[in-house]
Amino acid sequence: MPHAHIVGTGSSMPKRILSNEDLENMVDTSDEWITRRSGIKERRISSNLEQESTCDLSSRASSRALEMAGVSPEDLDMIVVGTVTADRQFPSTGCMIQMTLNAKNAVAFDVSAGCSGFLYALTVVKNAIQCGTCRNALVVGVDRLSSVVNWQDRGTCVLLADGAGAVAVSANSKKGGVLSTHLRSDGRLWELLYSEEGNTFTPEILQDIDQKSSYLKMAGNRLFKRAIAYMAEISKDALNENGLTVGDIGLVVPHQANIRIINALAHTLSVPEEKVYVNIHKYGNTSSATIPIALDEANREGRLNKGDNVLMVTFGSGLTWGSSIVEWTA
To answer: Right CATH number for 1-330 from 3.40.630.30, 3.40.640.10, 3.40.1190.10, 3.40.47.10?
Structure first.
């Protein structure tokens, strides 16, 4: 049975930086409050004046992943995108990326799992490779949450941002690569994080954003507790499935939702701080893009070495959550 190996990583973020100080002029908040509650100092926000649509960001991240991997777009068999903020209801972001890259031989589609979208998409590709129906694939996590933010809700607008990350995945007879993926969902808890119609307000400083009619609503305190418990549980499932302990993990790449969630998860799993990758202070919560962006940064910084076991874990609307352990072979 072939194994799915990550052979390239890429990411792309908007040019514009929205700082905590900028937000102080928009809503009743402060840099101290945002930093203490979330760990975020700044975030990237896309602009209609730049080429920063969901497709634009995804295509740039994908090109960088393919370049690192040495894989041509024509060699792709599959493009799977995790997103909840496609540029239009249809066609899919996957098909738009296919067009932009000229990946004419790939089948392309999106999956919707909120912040868990990247790991859901990775699972689809892993299974396709193991079944022998795919040799080379792109897995993309992308969201522009600025388009669904209620900019009058200080509890959520300070957290959310835009970005894209991608990985190139190839089949190889050599053991390693994506060792396992684990997915869960519970639709009974959908009201903890969902979208609702009626978004109309855009701050003057952000008049050039692409604002959708729906906006995000979140029950923060209840979601916080669920996130820590579920992410810890499914991380342990991944470790047990592969006969590993926390000591066998070289790097943990968690969903970058909130620094308090990341720290609580590390404490629950007894993972040393130096083994947890964190970039939320720079980019905020980019939903399904947080893990592939962090993975790309860690890779380019030399934090990932051949033979390292990498634990990725996430949590999002649905509710959905997931984990994966990858033996790094790139």
So the answer is: 3.40.47.10
